[in-house]
Automatic annotation (TrEMBL):
Protein name: Peptidase M48
Cofactor binding remark: Binds 1 zinc ion per subunit.
Regions that span the bilayer: 6-23
Family the UniProt entry places it in: Belongs to the peptidase M48 family.
GO cellular component, one term: membrane
Amino acid sequence: MLKFLPIILILCYGFAMWFFSAWRTKAELRQNSTPLDHPALKPLLARLGRAMDLPSIRAQVYEIPIVNGLAAPDGRIYITRGFLNRMEAGEVTPEEIASVVAHELGHVAHGHSQRRMIDFAGQNVIRSILLMTLGRFLPFVGPWLVGLLVSALSARLSQKDEFEADRFATALLVKAGIGPDAQLSLFRKLDRMSGGRRAAAPAWLLSHPPTPARIAAIEANRARWQG
């Protein structure tokens, strides 16, 4: 039993760090958010709810200027003020905002937050074991390689979650009668909304899949479910 004690301690540390991060995130979101009560969005959120045999979906506005949507660890859905400002300016449609809500609902439905907690703890174990082994034989290069390997693993798992949430959103948008066209059109606007910036890291180290890959997957799902 004692020989497993270091691994148990590492797992406990990983879980504790995740819970602390989740608590801090929830506190930040609650302090800086207001209920989403926009007349153009309320009917669309009601349609998403009916498609899931639920009441109208409730979301919050996270009062920050960037363009984003997110699902908190407690299952609440947030759309940033920056996203709503783009909608008010006519750059984004209400249906495209609804597609973001559907995507975040996919994260909640698949339990991605809880899965990330387990993954985070497991990655800490892998990192520690590799550092103890590779670090012994490759004292300078070893830690860099370990960091790269763990980052690649984390990115792969995160990208898998994004594809799952996209797939859920497409199915939900079809069932709700909104359709996935808004989901596709929003992705095609992402480069412009981000100012045309490209990620410097290679695709296999990014937390989100490349936009063309996501569009291709959504189009394949649309053909399957609408065909």
